[in-house]
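Anyone up for a design puzzle?
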């Protein structure tokens, strides 16, 4: 990993690590890659920005592996070792919010949260499903997109399982396909503008979200838009280093990506 302060054994330290859309319990989740990523980074605070466990998928088809269990164990072990662990439920794990609150202080649970960077910037952190109703997309096109996306995920998973067996790095096939389709790209850009405007309306310097499985870090009309990406398609995370700078990390490269131009929260960070 190329940014932050290095620890012994090649680890990197971060002030804050943002992860979302891990989808544990979904058969296409890239839990093995995430476990390897987590072994290479330490953070003072880890913010889980929704859809960590895919309760909707588990309700349809029970699926869980040792790699999925190891992700949970690693996150809770970090909390016991002193890492602050903040959990913001998404649309796939919203039903688990009450369960998380019962974990006797192991997790801080908020619907929305405000993160203050080391540089003093106030970032609104939410999953992003709050903007679904405002998105303009015909129902038939949405259903067609879901079918095509499901097929692409299946191919992506098989291809990358084969690449993993051959010792080859992860290849974000689904992400590249999605960004090559004009309709999909316009949908993503519409979401990004909605999220940035929402944060600006309430006076925040930026927004951190997930939900659409498209990692990005850009300036939109003077508001910082940060999307952590996911661990189904892109294998990405958002990191704040000790200087308060935000960087996108992509597994297995984990190289920082440069910034591109382009209701009141329930809790505020201390």
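Challenge accepted. My sequence:
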């Amino acid at each position: 990993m190329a940014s932050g302060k290095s620890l012994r054994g090649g680890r990197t330290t971060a002030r804050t690590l943002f992860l979302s859309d891990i989808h544990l319990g979904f058969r296409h989740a890239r839990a093995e890659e995430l476990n390897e990523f987590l072994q290479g980074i330490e953070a003072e605070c880890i913010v889980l920005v929704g859809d960590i466990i895919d309760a909707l998928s588990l309700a349809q088809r029970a699926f869980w592996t040792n790699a999925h269990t190891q992700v949970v164990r690693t996150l809770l072990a970090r909390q016991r070792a002193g890492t602050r662990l903040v959990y913001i439920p998404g649309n796939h794990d919203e039903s688990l919010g009450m369960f998380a609150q019962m974990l006797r202080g192991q997790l801080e649970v908020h619907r929305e949260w405000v993160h203050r960077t080391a540089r003093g910037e106030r970032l609104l952190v939410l999953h992003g499903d709050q903007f679904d109703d405002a998105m303009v997309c015909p129902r038939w096109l949405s259903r067609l997109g879901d079918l095509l996306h499901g097929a692409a995920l299946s191919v992506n998973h098989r291809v990358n399982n084969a690449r993993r067996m051959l010792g080859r790095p992860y290849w974000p096939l689904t992400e590249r396909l999605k960004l090559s389709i004009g309709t999909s790209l316009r949908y993503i850009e519409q979401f990004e503008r909605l999220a940035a405007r929402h944060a600006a309306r309430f006076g925040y310097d930026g927004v951190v979200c997930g939900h659409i499985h498209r990692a990005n870090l850009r300036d939109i009309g003077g508001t910082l838009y940060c999307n952590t990406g996911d661990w189904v398609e892109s294998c990405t995370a958002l990191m704040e280093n000790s200087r308060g700078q935000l960087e996108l990390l992509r597994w297995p490269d984990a190289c920082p990506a440069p910034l591109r131009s382009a209701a009141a929260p329930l809790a505020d960070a201390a």
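A detail worth pointing out: The chain has a mean pLDDT of 84.
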